[in-house]
Specification:
By secondary structure, the chain is α/β, with parallel strands linked by helices. The protein folds into 3 domains: about 30 residues; about 200 residues, P-loop containing nucleotide triphosphate hydrolases (Rossmann fold), CATH 3.40.50; about 190 residues, 2-Layer Sandwich (Ribosomal Protein S5, domain 2). The strands form 4 sheets. It has a 9-stranded mixed beta sheet with strand order 6-5-7-8-4-9-10-11-12. A 7-stranded mixed beta sheet has the order 15-16-14-13-17-20-21. A 3-stranded antiparallel beta sheet has the order 2-1-3, with no helix packed on it. The chain binds thymidine-5'-diphosphate and magnesium ion (MG).
Length: about 475
Amino acid sequence: MAKSRTSFVCQNCGAVAQKWQGKCESCSEWNSMVEEGGSAGIGAQAVAGLRKGRIFALEGLSTVTEQPARVVSGIAELDRVTGGGFVPGSVLLMAGEPGIGKSTLLIQTCARLADMNRRVVYISGEEAVAQVRLRAQRLGLAKAAVELAAETSVEDVIATLMQGRPPALVVIDSIQTMWTEKVETTPGTVTQVRASAQALIRYAKTTGATVILVGHVTKDGQVAGPRVVEHMVDAVLSFEGEGGHHFRILRALKNRFGPTDEIGVFEMTGLGLSEVANPSAMFLAGRDASAPGAAVLASMEGARPVLVEVQALVAPTALGTPRRSVVGWDPARLSMILAVLEAHGGLRLGQHDVYLNIAGGLRVSEPAADLAAAAALVSSLTGAMLPRTAVYFGEIGLSGSVRPVVHANLRMKEAAKLGFSSAVAPFVKREEGETPPLQVAACEHISKLIADIAASGARAGQGRPRAV
Ligand code: TYD
Ligand code: MG
């Protein structure tokens, strides 16, 4: 028989070392090494042949498994993101920065479900019951039969939940404030968060209740806590928004029971979060189409087309090194577009400050924004207005070519719905006999984009002589 030796296992990443170390070499976590018996590692026993394993039956993929009915919240934007409602027995993590509106959205969800005669329990570890009640009253939800408690002990919470009718939904606000007696570290530490989440997940799986764990993250998502439970939960919903703007986006980052490319759009109002069924109209509200430097981008947020305005300001610089400033888009992408405009479009931007902004506070990350950004930049530089009723989408390559992007038809349909009549885009593949929702002004190279903008500016008598 193999000699039994002790080893030290990191509780954070699972790395095994022969000697105790203050800091795990593999994940750099401090004080995470715990002594375990020599045959304690995963698979150790089976390999050592100490115990003969139990034989279980293997099943085929074709076995029909009955899908349990989902718990539909009635908040369409939320149900869309969860993939059609909450799956009984599933655990969701709702992650977001503090103050973004997680508690507000969840108390609204609870109230909706309670109104449908489901049992819902809201456990707040952060606010007193009176505070939660006060907020609910302000939202006009005071009559909803939501069961409230301010508790932080996981054991007490589970014992309480086990009593009476099994709840359909349990909200734990937040997982960082929960603690379990099973581990000795203080609340909020990785070990506590993970152990508490594990206990609540076990509760959900055994009782069929849906559990939503709220997790605070900082801008870079680094705070100890929510990230460590991501792999344990069934779905991770991220609640995002830009400071100073009222709209919020709920995004599924992971979903074992639905798609991950759906988003839900909400607006924070004095009466809580209201659903935004038509985000494009909201982002384009207040658009000033009478000034150069603004292009409408037909963008995709997940599986949903969203129109936003890309604004650019190009002005002669007073500094030695011109400024480049971007809000809502990737600065590296802007540098690339500027380089391409100089190299293949013949523009001179070295003596100009460049500012680029996605209006409304949305963050755009897809390459389809390239063409809209380029159009806005050229328009601002030349002083030539872009057509009011045109949308732009296309990816710009380093050679100056404009490449097609996915979902061209969805983008154009959305634009047509909002009254746009043309699209500036690379070649759009068309099905036989299909009429495109918009008139397409094909643009396969940025030199064509620049020439078209200059020509339309000249026709309208706009533009500055120093242009292009
Ligand atoms: P909250 O749900 O407490 O955020 P989180 O739980 O994510 O930390 O929301 C806090 C913010 O929302 C707060 O700054 C005020 C604002 N708010 C409104 O604008 N309208 C409302 O009706 C409510 C309830 C909150
Ligand atoms: Mg909160």
